Amino acid sequence: LNPHDVVRALLRERADRAPRERGEAYAPANIALCKYWGKRDAGLNLPITSSLSVSLGDLGARTRIEPLDGPDDRFVLNGREAEPNGSAARRVGAFLDRFRGADGPRYFVESESRIPVGAGLASSASGFAALVKALDRLYGWDLPPESLSILARLGSGSACRSVYDGFVVWEAGERADGMDSLARRMDEEWPDLRIGLHIVSSAPKPVGSREGMNRTVETSLLYRVWPERVAADLPRLRDAIRDRDFEALGATAESNALTMHATMMDARPPILYWKPETVGAMERIRALRAAGVAAYYTIDAGPNVKILYEESSENAIREAFPELQIAIPFAQ
Ligand code: 2P0
């Protein structure tokens, strides 16, 4: 199955519906506590392992889509029109082609992202999840969330997790067509949980995450233990969430991120996303911990550091990281 076939299989008779005037939707960014790193199918973004994330509440993307007369799509991101042939517009256009075919309708797409630019926060995750939900509203498909998750995955793997709020598990699945590779929300809340975004650099990364994960899978010997690491960490995280055991949650998430980075460092040529300031922040968090403040970190495919803590530690964290942007996953 190619991505277009997946779309057809999910939409079925809905594919013939006429559009409304517009569709609009919001989707949060997400941070993985057990990471997605490595694909078994690059065309469908099917992962080698399952992953677990938490969505970032009101840090995300709001997207509006309207049919457009004319030969080309228009894409406006944070008030700025994207270059028609730039990488952002091409990626959105290629994604829309999976729904409409190459000579289908053109669209005006406007997206506002409340994610710090360049935060290495997989803005593609909230972007594609919001776009799929906006399309669902434009055409009145009213698809179940599991289908929206599969469709979002076709845009960007981690986008399948941004269809939901809260804690989310993306089951890797086994099928070649990926119809069982989708995310579901966990039925748990953690109102005191906070995620601080410590931005070290917003410069473009030397190796994109797509290339980084492919190179790791192909060349890293350490990657061979990654599925075992995930198999051990996922149940630990589920238990920690169920028991509200913050130390277990933070320690597992932190170790999981370090193992992911170890697999990258073992790739040939090696991939190292950290900057001196990244390691500096890791040290500061370790020092906070030694001083009795429960704080842990996780790091994605970039130099920025995401700090996990609970509301009761907020003053100590803010003192150590005055510039922190704070996400509240379970705001009431
Ligand atoms: C994650 N990352 O679980 C991991 C951790 C980066 C490090 O998902 O190629 O943008 O679109 O499937 O989803 C970033 O990868 O990659 C990512 P594609 P994606 O959050």
Could you give the topology of this structure?
Layout: H1 3-11, E1 23-34, E2 39-41, E3 46-47, E4 51-68, E5 74-77, E6 80-81, H2 87-100, E7 106-113, H3 123-138, H4 145-155, E8 167-171, E9 182-185, E10 193-198, H5 209-219, H6 226-243, H7 246-265, H8 276-290, E11 295-299, E12 305-310, H9 314-320, E13 325-327
Parallel strand pairs: 5-7
Antiparallel strand pairs: 1-4, 2-3, 4-7, 4-8, 5-6, 8-9, 10-12, 10-13, 11-12
Helix pairs in contact: 3-4, 6-7
This protein binds ligand 2P0.
The site of ligand 2P0 has 15 residues, from helix 5.
Task: Give your account of this protein's structure.
By secondary structure, this protein is α+β, with helices and mostly antiparallel strands. Helices cover about 35% and strands about 25% of the residues. It has helices at about 5-10, 85-100, 125-140, 145-155, 210-220, 225-245, 245-265, 275-290, 315-320, and strands spanning about 25-35, 40, 45, 50-70, 75, 80, 105-115, 165-170, 180-185, 195-200, 295-300, 305-310, 325. Strands 1, 4, 5, 6, 7, 8 and 9 form a seven-stranded mixed beta sheet that branches. A four-stranded antiparallel beta sheet has the order 11-12-10-13. It is globular and about 60 Å long. The model has no long low-confidence stretch (mean pLDDT about 95). Ligand 2P0 binds next to helix 5.
In short:
The chain contains nine helices and 13 strands. It is an alpha+beta fold.
For the terminal residues, how far apart are their CA atoms?
42 Å
Strand content: 15-25%
Order of helices and strands: HEEEEEEHEHHEEEHHHHEEHE
Q: How confident is the prediction overall: mean pLDDT? A: 95
Q: What's the number of helices?
A: 9
Contiguous uncertain segments of 5+ residues: none
Structure classification:
alpha+beta
Helix content: 25-40%
Overall outline? globular
- Give me the count of strands: 13
The oligomerization state is single chain
Bound molecules: ligand 2P0
Major pleated sheet: 7 strands, mixed
Q: Roughly how many Å is the radius of gyration?
A: 20 Å
